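re: ur question from the group chat, yeah i did fold both. here u go
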Amino acid sequence: MKEIRIGIFGGSRGRNYYGPFDAIEGARIVAIADKKPEVREKLKEIVAEDVVVCETWDEMLAVGLDAVILANYFHEHCKYAIMAMEAGIDVISETTAAPTLGECLDLVECVERTGRKYMLAANCPKMPGPAELGSVYQSGVLGEVLYAEAEYCHPMSAEESSGLAPEEFHWRKYLPGTYYNMHTLGVLMAATKLLPRRVTAMDVKTKSCEARKGVITNAVSAGIALYEMENGSVFRSTGWVKMRPAGKWFRLSCENGTIETDRENQDRVLLRSKDQKSMLYDPMDWQYTAEERKGGHGGADTRICQQICDYLSGKDEEPIIDIYRGVALSLAAIYGHYSVLEGKTFDIPDMKDKTAREVLRGDYRTPFVDPGKEATLACNRG
């Protein structure tokens, strides 16, 4: 089998993929690009001599790639994904598929037009707790999901926020409360295989966030969204929550019982049946090898890299989050923010319905600010 040549665009987060891929047969990281000199210097210390460390996108593509992992800025994945696929390169997007409604449609049409492979590198569904929720739910023992919840709490001090968003126009400074949903709604979608069809959302504001103005332009603590899913169930999820304590939490409430991750340990799972029998257990003990755990995130980084390799090689026909699920996740985030701004519920179109998805065409309103440009969408309700 031909070895798959992979490039990584964005070295800060992207370097976390190098180690796991170094141990996987059938795929190899051949180039990593980052615009920052200090990041490139650190990369040269950890990668093999035959890995090309580049400054630009064009330099990386010139090395010769079969696929690219997009680990660049959150709001810039779509445009590079389209450029890659137009050049005959498969795409792995590390965070969100697209930041605007119009780009969601552009991305889907590019995949359909070029026939290239595309997936989100969603590592959170591969973590021990979330992975167990999906495994138990897909077994059918709990019956159909009626209600689900997901929270992603990652509080930061002003100093920490400033370190992660050092530039004047960094995307984190303008990130709407509902946008960072891959670690929440994305996990629930991966576990249940359901798509969102309607959304209503609100932002949470606190005085502590007001005190951080100047560091983070969008001074909100969280975006909270309610989704009506395609089976009629209701999911509640957050975006990036800045309130304490830190942690992730997931719950599926179903016809025959409930399964959720433990509040104190997100790798531990509590399974409760409708007859009130309960079982608290740690699936990591038997699911993940010591070698997998070296990759980080409880073995999730290693497992998502293996799935990337399997998908690109054709061993797996469908990833956890493919183009349609990935774009549905972005639409849920964007329409959730529209709901925050306008105070009403929005329908989320079926991206496989070419008539329904036309509503997205040409809508490139964005809350993100680039040098020399202005945002065309508010990042909060004000």
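okk and heres the other one u asked abt
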Amino acid sequence: MKLTKKTRYGTRLLLDLAQHQDEGAVQMRDISIRQNISVKYLEQIIRPLKKAKFVKSFRGPKGGHMLAKKPEEITLGDITRLFEDQSELVDCISEPEMCPKSDDCVVRLGWQKATIALYKELDSISIANLLKRKNSITNSL
């Protein structure tokens, strides 16, 4: 499974908002500079994040974006499910009717078990966990 750029950059955007949440609303151009992602691409990424209620936005001269949830309430699993077209490792897990062998396919069961394990791990890693890790790395330099 290869994650899309939207998933990777969406995670970086959320981590940036968490890192700067004490400063109030964060402007897109500041995120763009810090993360080296174009403002145009960030604007595409932020729409689904707002729709999923991970981010809230404010208009005006002091406007910008903030996390709508606590960093510990947003997981890598949440972000991956939001941006990836398919969250299963193989199509036949969610669409068993596509394969005539799906009812008794032990390989399908293996992929299903691997998908469950992957998301269990992704769901255990929150933006808060990543922020703590980032801070410990920064403080040790």
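fwiw on the second one: The chain has one domain: 5-140. Residues 5-140 form a domain with the Arc Repressor Mutant, subunit A fold (CATH 1.10.10.10). idk if thats what u expected
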